[in-house]
Design goal:
Elements: E1 33-36, H1 44-50, E2 53-58, H2 62-74, E3 79-83, H3 88-100, E4 113-116, E5 119-122, H4 124-132, H5 136-143
Parallel strand pairs: 1-3, 2-3
Antiparallel strand pairs: 2-4, 4-5
Length: about 150
């Protein structure tokens, strides 16, 4: 339990300056978000297979936020992989190879794109359409993303 101390100011941190900027610790890869920048190191096909629901999105994309919030509202906790603009083509090519390896060829993937149960599901339009038609929840249950 936290101790309550009345009339105590909130602790303030020193402003970021050039002298203490190098002491900041970044937390890439922790929690739900991973930011791909500076090249891709890892097998995206394995990442897709290991997670029940994954959203790949451009960094700062509003539609990826919509998809993420919709999936969270249904009870799924999707892994969100934000891709920097400079790495976008490389990630799309790797995802395209993962999608086309065991399925019929699809068009070029666009961000945000969603994988459910290790298989490519689609973009925000398909996620929203299947949610409206009440087909999304059974798919998430089947993939093991929901505990209902």
């Amino acid at each position: 339990m936290q101790n309550y101390m009345p009339n105590t100011p909130w602790p303030r941190h020193p402003p970021i300056t050039s002298t203490n900027r190098n002491n900041l610790k970044t937390r890439r890869g922790s929690g739900l978000k991973t930011v791909f920048n500076g090249g891709i190191s890892g097998d995206l096909k394995k990442v897709v297979k290991d997670n029940a629901v994954i959203v790949f999105a451009k960094k700062g994309c509003c539609m990826s936020h919509v998809v993420k919030r919709l999936l969270q509202a249904l009870g799924a906790n999707p892994a969100v992989y934000e891709v920097d603009e400079k790495d976008e083509n490389q990630v799309v090519d790797e995802l395209q190879m993962a999608v086309n390896s065991g399925e019929a060829a699809v068009g070029r993937l666009q961000f945000p794109t969603v994988f459910i149960g290790g298989r490519w599901f689609g973009g925000p339009d398909r996620v929203i359409a299947t949610h409206i038609s009440e087909e999304l929840t059974p798919l998430l249950k089947q993939a093991g993303a929901l505990w209902l």
